[in-house]
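Appendix B, example 12.
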Amino acid sequence: MRTHLIIVPAMLGAIACADRTAPTSSPLAARYSTGPTSEHLELAAERPFRELARVAPSHGGWYFDTRTGDLNVYLKDVREGPAARSALASLLSQPLARARASHPHAGIVFTQGTYTFIELARWRDAIDGLLMRTPSVQWWGIDHAKNRIVIGVLVGADSETIAAMALDLAIPVGALRFERTAPIRSEKTLEDSIRPVQGGIRLERVLSADSVERCTFGFPALWGGEHAFVTASHCSSQRFALDSTKQYQNRAPLTHAESLSISSVGFEVADFSTSCRTDVCSYADAAVYRATLGPGEWYFRRIARTVSGCLPSCTPPPPLTIDSTRPFWSIVRTEPNITVGQLVSKIGRKTGWTQSYVRQINMKVKVGCGWFSCNVYVGQAFSDYGSADGDSGAPILLDILGGTDTTVTLGGIHWGKTADTVYTIFSPWSGILQNYPGLRVN
């Protein structure tokens, strides 16, 4: 696996670039929240694609070219190019500016498409029920770089049967692309006790007298005007459920007895899920915790900054030392439009600062099925930055420019990977905000 020191994105040839429950008057006291039942959940992350379809109905999606910085857009009817160009300049102003910061000549390039985004979205939704009930299917969604629907199936599984059943639903076989994958795995395991708390540092949950589960502190936040923080939902005792789990951040692992007398850094106050068909869905593997820290122990916007990082991952042991001259980044903005080809960084307590490109967006990922229903995350993004057990909850960042720059863009939260390590998975900021309207991070 290639390892490179992260200095400046330009030097790497990289791009510098619903259903919901509204918060109550006191969100920090909110009970387990569910949204109304919906046959198909509307993704906030897909709104730009639907907006473009209003002026350029034949568009089939877009992605950034990681070599040139160009935004490549599929069109079935190239005559819609001028209208699409004008709309994209507004819809994707921030990602386009980020691309041009590293690639001054980057522009918008139109490519002949086979299918429109609206067609692909309709077929994806039509096949949802079939894929949800097929054990070999792990994830699926629109492949924006290839103008197809991509379906991740386990190695050795039969994909021809899925294709035949899709044809019965009037979905063209040519619109499907199958990718061999491994099962999805959530990841649990900067190690010191750090105050004020900041994104990227260790969290731990006490399981028993001699056992703890470790995750990563995502980012400080304001929830209902009160001090809070966000980490992965599965780092609590129950995924998709509000359980008031306490999280700790100490210099040494706690015993169960110690956890009864030592104050936690926070406890879970919101964990979103909603019904989709007969299944349980969420837009993000993210939960909100109320911070229980004293004066000076919680500070808004901060993400821990290590001395160096690697693309795509570091040779063990990874650098986990905090930069003494610039110990943190400040979140100054969020990225609402995660796009294929963007460069993202992950700051996790196990593997530190790793970086790579977004490979897929708006994927549906199964994280467990019972007799009658499955648990599913919708709108998830795939990359291939390095990660390991313990990185769950790690913040995903954009616009790390190196040097003396101390500001970053929050892009989401890391939570897992495929067992074959081909993809790492994160929940974009748009999905987190869709789960928790009113959550503030800057």
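The first strand starts at residue 33 and ends at 38. Residues 42 and 342 are 23 Å apart (CA to CA).
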